[in-house]
Amino acid sequence: MSKISKFFKGGGSATSKSRGGPSPQEALARLRETEEMLSKKQEYLETRIERELAVARQHGTKNKRAALQALKRKKRYEKQLSQIDGTLSTIEFQREALENSHTNTEVLKNMGYAAQAMKKVHENMDLNKIDDLMQDITEQQDVAQEISDAISKRAAFGDEFDEDELMAELEELEQEELNKGMRNVRLPSVPSTALPSRPGKLLACHFVFLMIKACLSNRKRAEDEDEMKQLAAWAS
Protein backbone atom coordinates (compact mmCIF):
# COMPACT_ATOMS: atom_id res chain seq x y z
CA MET A 1 0.00 0.00 0.00
CA SER A 2 1.39 3.41 -0.97
CA LYS A 3 1.91 6.28 1.42
CA ILE A 4 -0.89 8.30 -0.18
CA SER A 5 -3.39 5.48 0.19
CA LYS A 6 -2.43 4.98 3.80
CA PHE A 7 -2.77 8.71 4.41
CA PHE A 8 -6.27 9.04 2.90
CA LYS A 9 -7.45 5.76 4.42
CA GLY A 10 -6.60 7.08 7.85
CA GLY A 11 -3.64 4.86 8.48
CA GLY A 12 -2.13 5.94 11.78
CA SER A 13 -0.83 4.77 15.06
CA ALA A 14 -3.02 3.26 17.71
CA THR A 15 -2.20 6.17 19.97
CA SER A 16 -3.65 8.69 17.49
CA LYS A 17 -6.83 6.66 17.08
CA SER A 18 -7.27 6.27 20.80
CA ARG A 19 -7.08 10.03 21.21
CA GLY A 20 -9.69 10.65 18.54
CA GLY A 21 -7.32 12.14 15.96
CA PRO A 22 -3.69 12.87 15.14
CA SER A 23 -1.76 15.49 16.98
CA PRO A 24 -0.46 18.54 15.10
CA GLN A 25 3.05 17.10 15.16
CA GLU A 26 1.86 13.83 13.63
CA ALA A 27 -0.17 15.60 10.95
CA LEU A 28 2.78 17.82 10.05
CA ALA A 29 5.02 14.77 9.79
CA ARG A 30 2.54 13.10 7.41
CA LEU A 31 2.31 16.21 5.24
CA ARG A 32 6.10 16.43 5.00
CA GLU A 33 6.28 12.76 4.01
CA THR A 34 3.68 13.37 1.31
CA GLU A 35 5.59 16.40 0.00
CA GLU A 36 8.77 14.35 -0.17
CA MET A 37 7.04 11.55 -2.05
CA LEU A 38 5.46 13.93 -4.56
CA SER A 39 8.78 15.68 -5.08
CA LYS A 40 10.38 12.36 -5.98
CA LYS A 41 7.44 11.69 -8.32
CA GLN A 42 8.11 15.02 -10.00
CA GLU A 43 11.74 14.14 -10.61
CA TYR A 44 10.67 10.79 -12.10
CA LEU A 45 8.14 12.41 -14.46
CA GLU A 46 10.64 15.08 -15.57
CA THR A 47 13.10 12.31 -16.43
CA ARG A 48 10.47 10.39 -18.43
CA ILE A 49 9.47 13.55 -20.30
CA GLU A 50 13.07 14.14 -21.34
CA ARG A 51 13.36 10.50 -22.42
CA GLU A 52 10.20 10.59 -24.55
CA LEU A 53 11.41 13.79 -26.20
CA ALA A 54 14.64 12.06 -27.05
CA VAL A 55 12.72 9.11 -28.57
CA ALA A 56 10.56 11.45 -30.66
CA ARG A 57 13.64 13.24 -32.00
CA GLN A 58 15.33 9.94 -32.74
CA HIS A 59 12.48 8.58 -34.88
CA GLY A 60 11.34 11.85 -36.39
CA THR A 61 9.71 11.52 -39.79
CA LYS A 62 11.43 8.24 -40.44
CA ASN A 63 9.15 6.43 -37.99
CA LYS A 64 6.17 8.71 -37.43
CA ARG A 65 4.20 6.11 -35.49
CA ALA A 66 6.92 5.60 -32.85
CA ALA A 67 7.58 9.34 -32.68
CA LEU A 68 3.90 10.16 -32.15
CA GLN A 69 3.56 7.51 -29.44
CA ALA A 70 6.51 9.04 -27.63
CA LEU A 71 4.96 12.52 -27.80
CA LYS A 72 1.63 11.19 -26.48
CA ARG A 73 3.39 9.62 -23.49
CA LYS A 74 5.21 12.92 -22.94
CA LYS A 75 1.86 14.76 -22.86
CA ARG A 76 0.48 12.34 -20.25
CA TYR A 77 3.57 12.76 -18.10
CA GLU A 78 3.32 16.55 -18.37
CA LYS A 79 -0.34 16.39 -17.29
CA GLN A 80 0.59 14.29 -14.26
CA LEU A 81 3.42 16.70 -13.46
CA SER A 82 1.03 19.65 -13.57
CA GLN A 83 -1.38 17.84 -11.23
CA ILE A 84 1.43 17.12 -8.79
CA ASP A 85 2.45 20.79 -8.83
CA GLY A 86 -1.09 21.77 -7.83
CA THR A 87 -1.21 19.09 -5.14
CA LEU A 88 2.10 20.23 -3.69
CA SER A 89 0.85 23.82 -3.55
CA THR A 90 -2.26 22.70 -1.66
CA ILE A 91 -0.27 20.55 0.75
CA GLU A 92 2.20 23.37 1.34
CA PHE A 93 -0.64 25.78 2.13
CA GLN A 94 -2.22 23.23 4.48
CA ARG A 95 1.09 22.56 6.22
CA GLU A 96 1.76 26.27 6.77
CA ALA A 97 -1.75 26.78 8.13
CA LEU A 98 -1.33 23.82 10.48
CA GLU A 99 2.06 25.10 11.63
CA ASN A 100 0.56 28.53 12.32
CA SER A 101 -2.34 26.96 14.20
CA HIS A 102 0.03 24.87 16.25
CA THR A 103 2.14 27.94 17.01
CA ASN A 104 -0.93 29.92 18.04
CA THR A 105 -2.06 27.05 20.23
CA GLU A 106 1.30 26.92 21.98
CA VAL A 107 1.28 30.70 22.41
CA LEU A 108 -2.19 30.65 23.94
CA LYS A 109 -1.23 27.75 26.17
CA ASN A 110 1.85 29.60 27.47
CA MET A 111 -0.19 32.76 27.95
CA GLY A 112 -2.68 30.71 29.98
CA TYR A 113 0.15 29.37 32.14
CA ALA A 114 1.40 32.91 32.67
CA ALA A 115 -2.09 34.11 33.61
CA GLN A 116 -2.44 31.28 36.14
CA ALA A 117 0.96 32.09 37.61
CA MET A 118 0.03 35.77 37.89
CA LYS A 119 -3.24 34.85 39.55
CA LYS A 120 -1.39 32.66 42.03
CA VAL A 121 1.00 35.49 42.84
CA HIS A 122 -1.87 37.91 43.45
CA GLU A 123 -3.79 35.49 45.66
CA ASN A 124 -1.85 36.54 48.76
CA MET A 125 -2.04 40.25 48.00
CA ASP A 126 -4.60 42.42 49.80
CA LEU A 127 -5.45 45.67 48.06
CA ASN A 128 -6.29 47.31 51.37
CA LYS A 129 -2.89 46.38 52.77
CA ILE A 130 -1.23 47.74 49.65
CA ASP A 131 -3.07 51.06 50.07
CA ASP A 132 -2.03 51.24 53.72
CA LEU A 133 1.56 50.46 52.80
CA MET A 134 1.65 53.17 50.13
CA GLN A 135 0.15 55.64 52.62
CA ASP A 136 2.83 54.77 55.19
CA ILE A 137 5.53 55.22 52.57
CA THR A 138 4.13 58.64 51.64
CA GLU A 139 4.00 59.74 55.29
CA GLN A 140 7.56 58.61 55.93
CA GLN A 141 8.72 60.48 52.86
CA ASP A 142 7.06 63.64 54.18
CA VAL A 143 8.75 63.17 57.57
CA ALA A 144 12.12 62.66 55.89
CA GLN A 145 11.59 65.84 53.85
CA GLU A 146 10.74 67.83 56.99
CA ILE A 147 13.85 66.52 58.74
CA SER A 148 15.99 67.42 55.73
CA ASP A 149 14.53 70.93 55.60
CA ALA A 150 15.12 71.42 59.33
CA ILE A 151 18.74 70.27 59.09
CA SER A 152 19.51 72.44 56.06
CA LYS A 153 17.93 75.59 57.59
CA ARG A 154 20.47 78.18 58.82
CA ALA A 155 20.68 78.41 62.62
CA ALA A 156 19.43 81.81 63.81
CA PHE A 157 21.79 82.30 66.77
CA GLY A 158 21.65 85.86 68.08
CA ASP A 159 18.66 86.87 65.98
CA GLU A 160 16.60 87.42 69.15
CA PHE A 161 18.10 90.98 69.56
CA ASP A 162 16.12 93.93 68.22
CA GLU A 163 18.01 95.56 65.34
CA ASP A 164 16.40 98.97 65.98
CA GLU A 165 17.67 99.01 69.57
CA LEU A 166 21.15 98.12 68.40
CA MET A 167 21.14 100.95 65.84
CA ALA A 168 20.00 103.43 68.50
CA GLU A 169 22.82 102.31 70.81
CA LEU A 170 25.30 102.70 67.98
CA GLU A 171 24.12 106.26 67.28
CA GLU A 172 24.54 107.13 70.99
CA LEU A 173 28.10 105.85 70.91
CA GLU A 174 28.87 107.93 67.85
CA GLN A 175 27.36 111.01 69.49
CA GLU A 176 29.49 110.44 72.58
CA GLU A 177 32.61 110.22 70.44
CA LEU A 178 31.60 113.45 68.65
CA ASN A 179 31.05 115.30 71.96
CA LYS A 180 34.39 114.07 73.25
CA GLY A 181 36.06 115.44 70.14
CA MET A 182 34.35 118.79 70.56
CA ARG A 183 35.61 119.08 74.13
CA ASN A 184 39.18 118.60 72.96
CA VAL A 185 38.94 121.36 70.37
CA ARG A 186 41.03 124.45 71.28
CA LEU A 187 39.44 127.57 69.91
CA PRO A 188 41.71 130.51 68.90
CA SER A 189 41.71 133.56 71.18
CA VAL A 190 39.49 136.45 70.30
CA PRO A 191 41.46 139.57 69.16
CA SER A 192 41.40 142.39 71.71
CA THR A 193 41.50 145.20 69.20
CA ALA A 194 38.39 146.41 67.55
CA LEU A 195 38.10 145.59 63.88
CA PRO A 196 36.29 147.45 61.18
CA SER A 197 32.73 146.46 60.62
CA ARG A 198 33.14 145.04 57.10
CA PRO A 199 36.46 143.22 57.71
CA GLY A 200 34.96 142.01 60.99
CA LYS A 201 32.42 139.98 59.08
CA LEU A 202 35.18 138.33 57.06
CA LEU A 203 37.15 137.54 60.16
CA ALA A 204 34.08 136.07 61.81
CA CYS A 205 33.49 133.80 58.83
CA HIS A 206 37.13 132.77 58.85
CA PHE A 207 36.92 132.07 62.56
CA VAL A 208 33.87 129.84 62.08
CA PHE A 209 35.64 127.99 59.27
CA LEU A 210 38.64 127.35 61.48
CA MET A 211 36.42 125.99 64.24
CA ILE A 212 34.62 123.61 61.88
CA LYS A 213 37.93 122.42 60.41
CA ALA A 214 39.32 121.81 63.87
CA CYS A 215 36.22 119.83 64.87
CA LEU A 216 36.43 117.65 61.78
CA SER A 217 40.14 117.06 62.28
CA ASN A 218 39.66 115.98 65.89
CA ARG A 219 36.79 113.72 64.93
CA LYS A 220 38.86 112.11 62.16
CA ARG A 221 41.74 111.62 64.58
CA ALA A 222 39.40 109.99 67.12
CA GLU A 223 37.96 107.67 64.49
CA ASP A 224 41.45 106.65 63.33
CA GLU A 225 42.50 105.93 66.91
CA ASP A 226 39.36 103.84 67.45
CA GLU A 227 40.01 101.83 64.27
CA MET A 228 43.62 101.23 65.35
CA LYS A 229 42.42 99.96 68.71
CA GLN A 230 39.94 97.59 67.07
CA LEU A 231 42.61 96.34 64.67
CA ALA A 232 45.06 95.76 67.53
CA ALA A 233 42.38 93.90 69.51
CA TRP A 234 41.57 91.69 66.50
CA ALA A 235 45.26 90.95 65.86
CA SER A 236 45.84 89.98 69.50
UniProtKB/TrEMBL annotation:
Keywords of this entry: Coiled coil, Cytoplasm, Endosome, Membrane, Protein transport, Transport
Q: Where is this region: Disordered?
A: 1-26
Q: Topology with regard to the membrane?
A: Peripheral membrane protein
GO CC annotations, alphabetized: cytoplasmic side of plasma membrane; cytosol; ESCRT III complex; late endosome membrane; multivesicular body
Name of protein:
CHM4C protein
Q: Where does it live in the cell?
A: Cytoplasm, Cytosol; Late endosome membrane
Coiled-coil region = none
